[in-house]
Design the sequence.
């Protein structure tokens, strides 16, 4: 996603974290082995500070990642993400 997204990204991240929180409540030992992540697809605008602020708004458990355009491409390919 990207932090400057006005509608879909915040909704999707909120829903993801709601699901994770339910899972964490029901299965705390299993949830401790899972790391929810948000990877920006807009590294030019989504600096580490911006991504950190964005993810913190949803949960302290959510890890935000950014990097160079090449690093974001590599992460997207590794996770099977198309953008």
Sequence:
């Amino acid at each position: 996603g990207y932090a400057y997204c006005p509608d879909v990204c915040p909704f999707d991240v909120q829903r993801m974290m709601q699901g994770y929180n339910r899972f964490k409540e029901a299965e705390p030992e299993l949830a401790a082995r899972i790391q929810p992540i948000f990877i920006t697809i807009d590294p030019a605008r989504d600096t580490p500070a911006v991504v950190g602020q964005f993810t913190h708004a949803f949960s302290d458990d959510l890890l935000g990642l950014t990097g160079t355009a090449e690093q974001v491409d590599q992460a997207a390919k590794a996770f099977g993400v198309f953008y």
In short: The longest helix spans residues 8-26.
